[in-house]
Amino acid sequence: MANTILKTKDVKLKYGDFEALHGIDLSFNENEITALIGPSGCGKSTFLRCLNRMNDLIDGVTITGEFDYRGKDVYAEDYDIVELRKQIGMVFQQPNPFPMSIYDNVAYGLRVAGVRDKETLDEAVQTSLKQAAIWDEVKDKLDKSALALSGGQQQRVCIARALAVSPDIILLDEPTSALDPHSSRQIEATLLQLKEKYTIITVTHNLQQAARIADRTAFFLQGDLIEADDTKNIFMNPAHKETSDFITGRFG
Ligand SMILES: Nc1ncnc2c1ncn2[C@@H]1O[C@H](COP(=O)(O)OP(=O)(O)OP(=O)(O)O)[C@@H](O)[C@H]1O
């Protein structure tokens, strides 16, 4: 029986006067991959960024509605945002390793949190790189710049960096769209392994990718959530004509 870990209700978001989300009710289950799909500009990334309050950084944004994360209100005034972003980590579209060694990239979050013990850091770096399925490729060059890796390797180092602080949920915003097909498939395989331990929410433009890896899929259109269901229902038997038109390529 799936356990709901994060639940939103009537989420509306405005950039200035422009309402980009019109009232989103969506639940996420623990140890599942949920894919957010929909045509460009429908609000997928905006919604994803609300989940760990990344939109707080943008001027003129107004957000209303409920965000319940394990019984806590994510937007409560006293919610520690640094702690929230540790619990709900994020990986971006463009691999964005810091200009430092592979080791220092992965250890970064722990050092910021005050961890200094070398053994603890070594272990966390190794475990995170293994979980991100990149350990074998980098174990002999941990002191080399992460910027010298390929795009796909950089993205897996970024996933390792997110994992090192022991998150609960990982948000990914089109994590493979800047990568070649081989690297994309490696990331997909990595995500399928990671869901044993983490809850994963990913925005993707790639419908085949959603069909391959997501347990549940949510279809957005012009700031509305049209439907969310088991991925096979969304692709084989959608409840709404808009969903069927989108997944059969009739628009978007
Ligand atoms: N910082 C911003 N300021 C103003 N409007 C924004 C901002 N970011 C996004 N928007 C607008 O909000 C709407 C939703 O954008 P969003 O990026 O969430 O869509 P998306 O579905 O993720 O699109 P894409 O698939 O192209 O990335 C769009 O109309 C976009 O122009």
Topology overview:
Layout lengths: L3 E12 L2 E12 L3 E5 L6 H7 L10 E9 L2 E2 L7 H7 E4 L10 H11 L5 H14 L3 H4 L12 H14 L4 E5 L7 H14 L4 E5 L3 H7 L2 E6 L2 E7 H6 L4 H7 L5
Parallel strand pairs: 3-8, 3-9, 6-7, 7-8
Antiparallel strand pairs: 1-2, 1-4, 4-5, 9-10
Helix pairs in contact: 3-4, 3-6, 4-6, 6-7
Bound molecules: adenosine-5'-triphosphate.
How would you describe this structure to a colleague?
- Residues 6-247 form the ABC transporter domain.
- One of its GO terms (cellular component) is membrane.
- The protein is α/β, with parallel strands linked by helices.
- It has a domain at 4-95 and 168-247: 3-Layer(aba) Sandwich (Rossmann fold).
- The protein contains ten helices and ten strands.
- It has helices at residues 44-50, 81-87, 102-112, 118-131, 135-138, 151-164, 181-194, 207-213, 231-236, 241-247, and strands at residues 4-15, 18-29, 33-37, 61-69, 72-73, 88-91, 169-173, 199-203, 216-221, 224-230.
- It has a six-stranded mixed β-sheet, with helices on both faces. A four-stranded antiparallel β-sheet has the order 2-1-4-5, with helices on one face.
- A hairpin with a 2-residue loop joins strand 1 (4-15) and strand 2.
- Helix 6 runs parallel beside helix 7.
- Adenosine-5'-triphosphate (ATP) binds next to strand 2 and helix 1.
